[in-house]
Specification:
heterodimer, A: alpha/beta, Rossmann fold, four-stranded antiparallel sheet, 8 helices, 10 strands, 38% helix, disordered C terminus, B: alpha/beta, 2 domains, ten-stranded mixed sheet, 10 helices, 23% helix, 39% strand
């Protein structure tokens, strides 16, 4: 395996409830890079994101994933999170009775403990959270509300970005973070993500639309279809997709298949 | 001799040692109750009210009433117990006997009268003491046993317009080692527009197999308000049987916050009668059962008058092979128009072997009313668990956090802050490695 890569996925196959969704994914991501994974509905984008995060019931049937040089699949969901892998959910979960501030504190303490850092004291913690909330335009009232309960779609997405910015992950995976956002909210979210860009960190943007990529410029774009990456390229690939739609890809896919048939 | 006969024989054997044995009306009251007990007999599963809970334990072994406190305990032992340090007028009962050394009610403010029940029973009056008409005969076998064997309790009278700042704490401590039973009865009379808070705590020192049978009779006169908090943390082999009867006059309000964590067997029964217009009650409860515990919570609310409000929320968590029962009935009688009633129960099963029976019931005989009920029984939400874990929080802590939040819904509705924080601590102790949450909740 490549020593420089942060994440290396080889021949990944995964199924959910007995149904094969991922059918041989190869992908290498280095620190400092931003990758966009695009694809039509049911292409397996979200499944890939959740397999990386370690969702119970999403079963890897074949292949390997190395993260920071270690076997990712041998780690529990929480161990992955503590080692800096963060998934922003497409549908953030509502947690009755648990306030946002509890969740942030518990998550931050867990991550800091893993990094050998001291727990922040209450004042420093609140100061940090308030600063990040202000940057993301999140009302400080949401801090004491139950996690995502009664939040608008936009508030939920911003709340995910808030968690990300507080936890400072090494690998951030954003699953359709743009869905349901108006243009202003989209800019705020994109800005939150861009602030986090750094040479030590990689970001994976999972999206259906090219729109978000106008605000977060990816280094690489991959197109996923029926559980495989069928095309990879630079940011220009997203623009071609925007112009020609996913139909263009399936044509490419057909050509790809027939050509490989010829070779075979 | 069958079990009923054994308890009857026991009564005649002990009659001369029970308080008030020289007072005619007391003896008459006891003997009527004993007769009633014999008529009722021990319940069978065929009786609707006893579908889920059986009293075979009382039939298999005959639990002798305690004639005295069984073990010496000092103030330090007492201070270690849950809720012991709450600032309150405290009456301590050990093994069914009033302990005046451990109690601390002085100085009581004006307008509050507290008597120990055995004093009332022993007072040589010809006529039945006025608080006793309150202790109605019910068709409950445990209530009948209590009436026959009653040894102690508190008679509390809050005079009109008195607003008692500090709560009154009835602390029941059981040190019983052998198979014995304690019987007590508390009577609370709240005169018009009086306000008070009552805490009832039941705890054990030791692991004895015992019965704690406690009856509470409460009368709220016009405009009176009572917040009643109860912690049932009996020993793991103890049994807790309790009936609380509340009568509400117009514009009065009663709250009952029940927290049941202890005992191998509990039957807690609350009967609330909304007799006067615009009276209201709030009955909330939380139980957490483990190992082979069997905890039954019954409530019965009668809307007898117009424009009364009742609110009820019970939550339960059952683990291992334990069994929880919630049976909550609201009856809206024909003249109780504009009644507003809501009963909700939410329950979590944490294991394959656990069981919860939830039965909210409405019986409505008036046409202009607002009534609703709902019940859920489920497991911890796997989506939420995954979300928490994906934020780096380990599985055990995530589960505990979810359980804490679920239970806290009931705790946070207690208006008394000091009780709330004490309950938070007790809740963490009920959760496996709940102490890890302690840090978080600071």
């Amino acid at each position: 395996m490549n020593q420089n890569s942060l994440l290396q996925i080889s021949n990944l196959h995964a199924e959910v409830e007995g149904q094969a969704i991922l059918k041989g994914i190869d992908l290498t991501i280095k620190a400092g890079e931003v990758h966009a994974i695009m694809g039509p509905n049911a292409s397996g984008k979200s499944t890939l994101a959740h397999v990386l995060a370690g969702r119970p019931g999403f079963e890897v049937t074949q292949g390997e994933i190395y993260y920071q040089g270690n076997d990712l699949l041998s780690l529990t969901t929480e161990e992955r999170a503590r080692k800096g892998l963060f998934l922003a959910f497409q549908y953030p979960v509502e947690i009755p009775g648990v306030s946002n501030v509890y969740l942030l504190k518990a998550a931050m303490n867990a991550v800091r403990k893993e990094r050998g850092q001291q727990e922040l004291d209450a004042m420093d913690f609140l100061e940090l959270i308030r600063m990040r909330m202000a940057e993301l335009g999140i009302s400080s009232e949401l801090l004491y509300r139950n996690v995502n309960e009664g939040f608008s779609g936009g508030e939920k997405k911003r709340n995910e970005i808030l968690q990300m910015s507080v936890l400072e992950p090494q690998l951030a995976i954003l699953d359709e973070i743009d869905s349901g956002l108006d243009i202003d909210a989209l800019k705020v979210v994109a800005n939150g993500v861009n602030t986090l860009r750094s040479s030590e960190r990689a970001i994976v943007i999972v999206t259906h639309y090219q729109r978000l990529l106008n605000y977060i410029k990816p280094d690489y774009v991959h197109v996923l279809s029926l559980g495989r990456i069928i095309k990879s390229g630079g940011p220009e690939l997203a623009e071609v997709l925007e112009e020609k739609g996913y139909g263009w890809i399936s044509q490419v896919d057909d050509i790809h298949h027939s050509s490989s048939g010829e070779i075979g | 001799m069958n079990a009923v006969e054994s308890y009857q024989a026991l009564y005649w054997q002990l009659a001369e040692q029970l308080p008030g044995h020289e007072v005619a009306w007391v003896r008459a009251m006891r003997e009527t109750a004993l007769q009633h007990f014999a008529e009722l007999g021990f319940p069978t599963r065929k009786q609707e009210a006893w579908k889920y809970t059986q009293l075979q334990a009382l039939e298999k072994n005959i639990y002798h009433p305690t004639t005295s406190q069984q073990q010496f305990i000092n103030n330090d032992d007492c201070q270690q117990l849950p809720l012991a340090t709450l600032d309150a007028y405290k009456l301590v009962f050990v093994d069914g006997h009033f302990n005046w050394i451990l109690s601390d009610i002085n100085p009581l403010p004006d307008g509050v009268v507290i008597n120990e029940l055995s004093n009332i029973l022993n007072s040589q009056t010809k006529q039945q003491h006025p608080i006793f008409p309150l202790t109605q005969q019910t068709d409950d076998v445990l209530n009948a046993l209590n009436n026959a064997f009653i040894t102690t309790g508190a008679a509390i009278n809050i005079l009109a317009d008195v607003q008692l700042e500090k709560p009154i704490h009835l602390q029941y401590i059981n040190t019983i080692k052998n198979k014995s039973a304690s019987y007590s009865r508390n009577v609370v009379i709240m005169e018009p527009n009086s306000h008070a808070q009552l805490i009832e705590s039941h705890v054990a020192l030791g692991e004895g197999d015992y019965v704690n049978n406690v009856q509470v009779d409460i009368q709220l006169e016009t405009g009176a308000q009572l917040q009643h908090y109860k912690l049932q943390l009996e020993g793991q082999s103890g049994m807790h049987f309790s009936e609380t009867q509340v009568e509400l006059a117009s514009d009065s309000h009663y709250q009952n916050h029940l927290f049941a964590f202890g005992s191998q067997l509990m039957r807690n029964n609350i009967k609330t009668k909304l007799n006067g217009a615009r009276a209201g009650c709030l009955l909330n409860g939380l139980f957490i059962s483990q190992s082979k515990q069997h905890l039954e919570m019954r409530t019965h609310i009668d809307h007898h008058a117009p424009s009364c409000t009742s609110r009820e929320t019970y939550r339960g968590i059952a683990n291992d092979k334990s069994h929880g029962v919630f049976d909550g009935t609201v009856v809206v009688h024909p003249h109780a128009q504009k009644s507003d009633a809501r009963v909700t129960t939410n329950n979590l099963l944490l294991s394959q072997g656990s069981e919860i029976d939830a039965k909210p019931q409405l019986e409505i005989y008036a046409d202009d009313v607002k009534c609703s009920h709902g019940a859920t029984i489920g497991q911890l939400d796997e989506e939420v668990l995954y979300y928490l874990r994906s934020r780096g929080i380990d599985e055990a802590t995530s589960r505990n956090l979810m359980l804490f939040a679920f239970a806290n819904h009931i705790i946070e509705q207690c208006p008394m802050n000091a009780f709330q924080s004490a309950l938070h601590g007790l809740l963490l102790k009920q959760l496996q490695s709940g102490d890890q949450l302690q840090e978080l909740l600071k």
